[in-house]
Design a protein that fits this description.
235 residues, alpha+beta, globular, three-stranded mixed β-sheet, Trna Endonuclease, Chain: A, domain 1
């Protein structure tokens, strides 16, 4: 199981790629806790970034702790794509709870901005931030991996985030719907590359809201079901 981290407000970090020696400035996305506090991973400025050479499902996520309310939740681990093609895993530091939490200060207001998408994990974070804004709680990694992309879940909801460069297919939409049916949950699909025309038809017939994530991390409704969800939020 991933270690528990206490997240605070973000600080920019200068990251050097060990492959090409290029330096970039990384600013972690702000993620909302269910209590409304704004959270971001505490980065270790003294530890080097490491290239991602292989993917492990368990390593994709980290359990995080909100010092404001004491709630634990899972978020994608932060990473950065270098222009040379190397994907870098950002080093994180364990922190103590902030002064505001120790003094019992109230949580920040429930205002949520989009998350700029640079990596697949940014896409997952953007979708999770949006779902929390709609009122879904207890967002976590889905128990089953989807046919494409990454699965996240909330109470009564299963979401698929597809960061691939090709449009989602009818099969992708149907598999999400079937998995949600077995869990007695609603479902929603987020895609970076959009949807094949047949996938939209399949989604409309099965009742699956479709969203496209633009590179600013803003979800755009593709069908009427998504527009209705955007307008009404979680029920």
């Amino acid at each position: 199981m991933p270690g528990v981290l206490e997240w605070a407000m973000p600080e920019s970090l200068s990251v050097r790629c060990p492959a090409c020696r290029r330096e970039q400035l990384y600013e972690p996305p702000v993620c909302p806790c269910a209590c409304g506090a704004h959270l971001a991973p505490p980065l270790d400025p003294h530890a080097p970034a490491t290239p991602v050479t292989h993917r492990s499902w368990d390593d994709e996520w980290v359990t995080v702790h909100c010092a404001a309310c004491g709630r634990d939740s899972e978020w994608p681990r932060p990473e950065l794509g270098c222009p040379c093609g190397t994907v870098l895993l950002l080093p994180m530091a364990r922190t103590e709870a902030g002064e505001a939490a120790r003094r019992g200060a109230p949580a920040a207001p429930r205002t949520f901005g989009p998350v700029t998408i640079r990596t697949a994990r940014d896409a997952v974070t953007a979708a999770a931030v949006y779902l929390r804004r709609l009122g879904y709680r207890d967002i976590r990694r889905a128990d089953q991996r989807p046919t494409a992309g990454i699965g996240i879940a909330a109470h009564g909801l299963l979401a698929q985030v597809d960061p691939t460069v090709g449009p989602a297919s009818p099969r992708d939409v149907e598999c999400l719907w079937l998995t949600a049916m077995t869990e007695s949950a609603d479902c929603v699909y987020f895609s970076l590359a959009g949807y094949a025309p047949e996938a939209r038809t399949t989604a409309d017939s099965l009742g699956v809201p479709l969203f496209v994530l633009d590179l600013t991390g803003t979800p755009r409704p593709v069908n009427d079901l998504a527009a209705d969800l955007d307008a009404t939020g979680a029920r």
